[in-house]
Amino acid sequence: MRTNAGNLKKGEFVKYQNEIWQIQKADFYSPGKGSALMKTKIKNILSGKNIDYTFKSNEQVETLDVESIEMQFLYKDAENLYFMDERTYNQYPVPLQIVGEVASFIKEGDKIYVYLSNEKALNIRPPMSVRLKVVETEEAVKGDTVSGAKKPAKLETGVTIMVPLFVKAGEVILVNPETGTYSERVKT
Amino acid sequence: MKIITNTDNLTKYKIYIDVKKSVIDFLNKKNYLEVDLPILSPSLIPESYLEVFETDFRYLSQKEKLYLTPSPELFLKRLLSYGIKDCFYLGKSFRNSDPSSTLHSFEFMMLEFYKTKTDYWGIADELLEMLGYVSRHLSADKSGAGKSKTITYQGQKISLGQWEKISVADAFEKYAGIKEKELFDQKAFINKAEKKGYRSKGFGYEDLWSQIYTSEIEPNLGVNGYPTLIYDYPKEFAALAKLNPDGKTSQRFEFYVAGIELGDCYTELTDWKEQSIRFEQEDIKRKKAGKTGHTVDKGFIEALKYGLVDCSGVAVGFERLAMIFADARSIKEIKLIDIE
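The joint structure predicted for all components is written out below.
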């Protein structure tokens, strides 16, 4: 499929210089001289490398037709995360360097959407938020009431993030896996 | 589109209001006349890169086209021609086909001020003084102490005490490896762009120029501890600016902080014949690009015939300017209500 670069959106896949890239960021920009532009950050799906590229907004760009299918996250090794399509039992590896930091926020058994093109998994679609248990964090010191104060907390996947002082070990919290930021406590 | 309410932005919004107050205060002190202007006009200056909003005035069976002004220039230059001296407008301007992004909005605040009997370098001095004035005003405590000409934007310290000045030709050589010869020769420039990997099919000099300028030049402007003033654009980008005696460049500068363009200044073209030729060319380009056909403002040329004094003016994207002082990453962060 072809589209104007001005229509590109975060998450889409494009073919550029014969390689497949995923749009990480796309921001309209008009310098008032020459054509309007689309400033993008794109990630190479083979190497995981991010580059900044400015498209002319009326330039034709080839987008990739992809399916996103809900799969079960099985396990990860040093190179890949492995997902299974529960309808077909087919397994798909997705390179760790493509998934990036998001990988530290998903746990075995999670249902995650995976982008497929020609039976090849390109990347995962990060969930808006994930529920994770806090396994280790210091008790808040009494009297420390500075609003917005944060402390480190280790989550069940092993990753450490900053949380508000009132969060206790054993509680479950919602985290945005793309930014690694705490959003709220979940009552269990 | 929807209406977005952002009361979380209150702190940054208040800085925006303070910037507005101190800019008006500065211009008043410098004897600029504040001018309130219409935002609906029956005719406009033809500018090939701008798309406009159109509406109708209706009365009984009559209908007349009106356009939201993309800049106050057509009004302010009339006033200058008919004898008003230094003046400014701070208010809304509208540009259609600019989707909401970190630096754009189809409805935005524009500061435009004109100074008579000076060229673009005169405005450069005035502008720097204004930036310093705003910074000192924002950093002063109640006793007036602690005044500073240095701001911190996204972790970068920027001193507003002086400009870093670079010509467009030097910037292309330094940051993009494009020599002056190639820069001003359209064919050579397009070849060079192709060699660099830019797609040129269906695009002209001006499109590729702005693509390279945006990707390779702009990120280097305003990042060396001072705001950068980049000057003398190729004549293709002269718009309403006077040409330099070299015939290749125009007396236009833009200024940047942290890679963000904040404003655009010209030594104003006063020759009505030259201006009407440029208008015709721009109007043809607009039609070719399928832009909204609007009535060309003939009264503007008439005003120039009457005699525009030597003057220079600058247009500043006001939300962007306030965004720098509020240390915000996007113009969205300084608005309480936004449409997107």
